[in-house]
Amino acid sequence: MAYQPVFANEVMTGGNPIIQAESLDKFYGSFQALDNINMSVHSGERVVICGPSGSGKSTLIRCFNALEHHSAGKLVVDGIEVYEGSKQIRKLRQEVGMVFQQFNLFPHLTVLENLTIGPMRVRKVPRAEAEANAHRYLERVHIPEQADKYPSQLSGGQQQRVAIARSLCMESRIMLFDEPTSALDPEMINEVLDVMVGLADTGMTMVCVTHEMGFARKVADTMIFMDGGQIIETAPPEKFFTQPESERCRAFLEQILEH
Amino acid sequence: MSSRILKRFHWLDVLIILVLVIFAAVVWYRIDGALNYKWRWEIIPNYILRWNEDSQSWVANVLLQGLITTLRVSLYASVLALILGTILGIARCASNLAVRMLARTYLEFLRNIPPVVVIFIFYFFLSEQLVVAFNIESWARGIARSEDKAVWEFLFGDMRRFPSLVSGVIVLALFESAFVGEIVRAGIQSVNQGQREAAQSIGMSRWQQMRFIVLPQAFKRVVPPMANQFISLIKDSSIISLISVQELTFKTVELVASTRAIFEAWITTALFYFLICFALSMLFRRLEYQPDAR
Hints:
heterodimer, A: alpha/beta, four-stranded antiparallel beta sheet, 23% strand, globular, disordered N terminus, B: mainly alpha, two-stranded antiparallel sheet, 13 helices
């Protein structure tokens, strides 16, 4: 495909991108999940990726912290080239936080232990410091009082906020969100989005796969629309929502903005 | 359809019980009359506990000695089987093909060979070699003569028989480890893939994922089958009487040979096994039943 994405932010931030993908392909057997993905994310940039299910958006951000490996092309994240079997992958993952659709908290550990196990075991931070940090981040996601509970005692929204805090505790420089609100009851979506908006305000580099268009409008610097494993459209939100260029993107937006 | 569970006896229950009692009485009569068997229950208690004139105290006689050895062997073999089984279970889930195949081969061999044959093979090819290689024989004899003998004897019984105890423990543990390994593997595989991904995404190594995230959850889930496996181990421990470990079954064989009190001795032994296994299964059931346990 001859499509060349326009990076709206390149002028804005300048410098080297913190995530740079060049012609990424990904195959599951003969099924092509990613098809010639070219994109970059700069430090402090907030990118929202949307698209119909099966469009490859989750696969794409899972490549960014090597939970999936691309089949062809080049991917550099935070100065580390990502490829299967690279010795640098663990280092990379410490810099890249990930928030999952299903929270994936560790059910056998308390909230506090969920937050401290990474820093203590991976970064070798002393317990006292790790716990102080954990309490600070729990404060930031507005649930300081839940530190000693187990995940199963929390609501979905609270669990997802703990999951965000868990990634923050690793002092990551990039945060990836894989449909963070899709598994939540409607009344809990906003409490999670509020935390994410707050995070965006601190200047964190964020890549979010989400269908929450209100959130996207509020925080995104760049909108990306994917379909069939390809990036169809890349645009700043004001242009993306008012005058999308491709027909597929327009149809998609009509469908999800209707309600 | 109503599914009532009756708490009181129905006339049908009474009938069933009556038939069973009559059947038992007939069997009893046949044994008593036809076999012309002379019951000598009165000699049994003396073979459990015996009054020692020299020390003026009660001491364990053959049956109780055997029972204690059975408990010792089972306890040590359980611990060893748990360790080996965990390694085996992890190996079964390894990413390395050779490791996985080795673990699989070990397991399939043990599953498809009768336990008695397995025990003999392990005994003659492994335990004997180990006992010789580590010079356990003379080491144990040294202990038996040393000062702190009491502690060792409390843990392992008569130190002169220590080599045979070690063989028994190793053989039993190797045999049971295959089954423990399968339980551990099932536990590991029951942990959601998302847990591993979450652990990966905070930078944990494969070992750390296993140690801190997967195994703790896996073990919590496999407590019930694991408890059953350890009860099986106690029952299976009677097999090592074949390699002359002086546990309950071995001692009973000896007792029967010297007293000819066939039924009395074996029924007593059966009761011992039953009491221990039943008590343990009740205990484990109670442990599982903690509503607040996580």
